[in-house]
């Protein structure tokens, strides 16, 4: 079948009339915003919606017909469904109001496809608490699998009448094509239009008991379960059975059971459970639910347990990963918790070996880069800051929310621009900017190490050889800036300078200020860039960038394939490379991770 000149997957079992009708619903702006696909078990509801999602979920699909997100509801609880939709819609959300608010602000037409709704962990709760609130947004349309008379269909309430496709109605199936399809598979055309009945498939097998599943888990020579050799599907079924039989709470005792099983099954089983591991799972949930790699899930959950449950941290280390959390200051750290971190900078000079943290009120404090041990309070606030940076001589430059800069002189002043001529350089940079300053960063490889600055018009200015240069790099404000020296020790005026900028346009630009900027971005995603960092590690030059949806992407510049994506389950507001670690700041505090070398494969 083709549509708009595009080839789409074949629609089997003679369902072409149903497929064309769904295209018509998508194309008709006056049609009801809810479309229900109904019919008895085995009639092909899920197959039809899977086909629709595959055919209309690509970037090449016209905007009016495009399905923006698919939620395969089978097995999902409310929490996992919420996290999945937030991830797929690019709206980081932990609650339904956060998701609806993000979509309302976005404003784009949004079509959501929900197959398998009857097989969700709690179908009626999923409808009442998630799908129905989403349908209250005028730009949202939804096509769901929900049989007429079922509890999940009734849960949509007495609102506007939906469009309903009763798939066992002969008008939605071409009898001749259905018959040919059946005969080609040795089926019975007389079962028209029920595809499962035609092929002699009576339905899904019943659920296995917990004991039966436990007996299938491999064991080591000492008789203990060998979880690392157990298939994910089996462990997922184990969690589902444990939830059904009331044993899910006890399974937290081994955190490997969580990360090696499917995250949707684990989340459904842990609904309502408490405990340190369960709470860490809920905190990291938005990063876990869509992560297919168990090693990445283990690294994320392990990071969430740092300083909370060291036995669980050690147990999760059994799963080798491309990165590992080293220290974290979560809210549970008590008096050591610095609060939310809006800006970060690696310390130099008198602050060497430390990381500077800024909070929402403008308070600036230090922590030890290697351990996270709290240090000194440098600025008590109260002006909110956009950014801060530390020069090689130890001066700290603050950029407040109004675009104004402030200098903090180092305890031991250094020669050159430290700190007095630095103020003059900042004034010249401000004069060259197009509008308010929006970002700043020291570039150690530039003479004098005066900061580079970004402006709200999308330009970056830097100071070199007594002159100020400006390049237009982004559409919209520069939202993040970082610099490094590719040679030398990275904290002196020696080496080739590297500058990285991120913008509201979602682009990351990378270049040496002594050369012309690259023609295009080194990376681009939907949503604003929230932070960037640059440095030189054991594996060579490295750049990190974060976007509004919480993704952190790390690139090794000497390896085109050296890319690592990681998420912690929370927004990322700031990044810094310090002491060989990537420090990540956000609403829950700072986290430091070590980037290994095996991830570059």
Folded structure, characterized:
- The chain has 601 residues and is of the alpha+beta class.
- It has 16 helices and 30 strands.
- A five-stranded parallel β-sheet has the order 4-5-6-3-7, sandwiched between helices.
- Strand 5, helix 5 (123-135) and strand 6 form a beta-alpha-beta unit.
- Helix 3 (78-89) packs across helix 12 (263-270) and helix 14 (294-304) runs antiparallel to helix 15 (310-316).
- The radius of gyration is 28 Å and the shape is globular.
- The relative contact order is 0.08.
- The model is unreliable at 489-493 and 597-601 (pLDDT under 50).
List the helices and strands and how they pair.
Elements: E1 2-3, E2 6-7, H1 16-27, E3 34-38, H2 45-56, E4 69-70, H3 78-89, H4 96-106, E5 110-114, H5 123-135, E6 140-145, H6 151-154, E7 163-166, H7 175-184, H8 195-198, H9 210-214, H10 232-245, H11 256-259, H12 263-270, H13 276-288, H14 294-304, H15 310-316, E8 323-328, E9 343-346, E10 354-358, E11 364-368, E12 374-379, E13 385-390, E14 396-400, E15 405-408, H16 420-432, E16 437-442, E17 451-455, E18 459-464, E19 467-472, E20 478-485, E21 497-503, E22 507-511, E23 523-524, E24 529-537, E25 540-547, E26 552-556, E27 563-566, E28 574-578, E29 581-586, E30 589-595
Parallel strand pairs: 3-6, 3-7, 4-5, 5-6
Antiparallel strand pairs: 1-2, 8-30, 9-10, 10-11, 11-12, 13-14, 14-15, 16-17, 17-18, 18-19, 20-21, 21-22, 22-23, 24-25, 25-26, 26-27, 28-29, 29-30
